[in-house]
Amino acid sequence: MPKASIKSADFASLYETFTRSRTDLWSKFTPYDYATREIVADLTPDCTAIHCKGARHCERDNRTIACRGFPFYPYLTRQREFVGIGTYWVFEDRCWMMSNLERVDRPFVEQFIATYEALFIKDPSEFNTYVEFSASARRVHSRWKREIPLLGRQGELLMVEPSSGAIRAGRRKDFPKANPFDSEKAYREAVTEAGGEVPKEGLRAA
Ligand code: SF4
């Protein structure tokens, strides 16, 4: 279909027409408990819940945008300005990258922003989803009395004061490391507990 004619409802049909014709990595997701039923119930009618076969079977070329962007989401202000990228905070204890935001390189941030800007033009409902999601980030962090860490459009560190929405420049020390990434010992214990193999370089980036 010509790109210019894509409408939001077409994204749901991508599962049928695009993914199934090139891979069997993805299949429709059936909720199995309260939490997953809630997640699926929250989806807009033009969305289809799908899941992959798991990390061991990952096909890099057939990943979704969500896979490629993880752990980041587009952060939009109350004025609906796309000022940078935030992180899915519920994963902060499992995602090394979220404890090392200063290492995210500028080309990734620029490509992430360019991709979502293109997507927002083609699918305004996606834009509204992230307006609401960013508001929910402000509500959650406000309750926690914690600032929201962001990477700005040029990859710079930023901090959002959640109740006012004010944004200031961030410094490395403003971005605490989440457990288990706050010490070599905690990291090794967490890897061992999960049955994994501790990398030779430990917590240090390769
Ligand atoms: S990146 Fe993760 S979620 Fe995405 S296809 Fe690969 S294993 Fe599945």
Characterize this entry briefly.
The chain has 206 residues and is α+β, with helices and mostly antiparallel strands. It has helices at residues 8-22, 34-41, 65-69, 106-122, 124-144, 184-193, and strands at residues 27-28, 50-51, 72-76, 82-87, 148-152, 157-160, 167-169. Helix 4 (106-122) crosses helix 5 (124-144).
* Oligomeric status: single chain
Count of helices?
A: 6
What can be said about the biggest beta sheet? 5 strands, antiparallel
Shape: globular
The structural domain count equals 2
Output the radius of gyration: 18 Å
Distance between the termini: 42 Å
Task: Give the strand line-up of the largest sheet.
Answer: 3-4-5-6-7
Overall mean pLDDT stands at 90
Identify every distinct bound molecule in the structure, by name, code or SMILES. Answer: iron/sulfur cluster
Structural class: alpha+beta
Binned strand content: 5-15%
Share in helix: 25-40%
Number of strands: 7
Give the uncertain stretches in residue-range form: none
Compressed to H and E, one letter per element, the order equals HEHEHEEHHEEEH
Key features of this structure:
206 residues, alpha+beta, 2 domains, five-stranded antiparallel sheet, 6 helices
How would you portray this structure in words?
The strands form two sheets. The chain has a five-stranded antiparallel sheet with strand order 3-4-5-6-7, with helices on both faces. The protein has a two-stranded antiparallel sheet with strand order 1-2. Helix 4 (106-122) crosses helix 5. With 206 residues, it is α+β, with helices and mostly antiparallel strands. The model has no long low-confidence stretch (mean pLDDT 90). The chain has helices at residues 8-22, 34-41, 65-69, 106-122, 124-144, 184-193, and strands at 27-28, 50-51, 72-76, 82-87, 148-152, 157-160, 167-169. Bound molecules: iron/sulfur cluster (SF4). Iron/sulfur cluster is lined by residues 52, 55, 58, 63, 67. Residues 52, 55, 58, 63, 67 line the site of iron/sulfur cluster (SF4).
